[in-house]
Design a protein that fits this description.
The structure is a single chain. The protein is mainly α. The mean pLDDT is 93.
Length: 103
């Protein structure tokens, strides 16, 4: 699915906010996914509690997180977790965008 620049920009902004960084600079969905996977992989290896706090703040489904955590490699976990994070952030931005248009 193609997303508008505004949706991707909003998603990038939320990612920067939730991860407490300005490292997310990609302007494409694939780029955001890659940057998110790298950030998740780093947190998996160095600060799992911070990653879990971020997932809670983003409101990623706990059952899906548990399922992803059963993957065999850290890279697989990071890729799948990034997918869940991006999907949830996109949902939030799309909902806000839709309601802002109606007002």
């Amino acid at each position: 699915m193609d997303y508008s620049r505004a949706i991707l920009s909003g998603t990038r902004s939320l990612l920067n906010q939730h991860f407490g960084t300005t490292d997310f600079k990609a302007s494409t969905l694939d780029g955001l996914h890659l940057q998110t996977a790298v950030a998740v992989c780093h947190l998996l290896r160095n600060n799992l509690s911070k990653l879990l706090q971020i997932l809670y703040r983003i409101d990623v489904d706990e059952q899906k997180v548990k399922k992803v955590m059963t993957c065999q490699t850290t890279a697989e976990v990071a890729e799948n977790m990034a997918h869940l994070i991006i999907k949830r952030e996109l949902q939030k931005v799309q909902t806000r965008f839709m309601y802002n248009r109606q007002n």
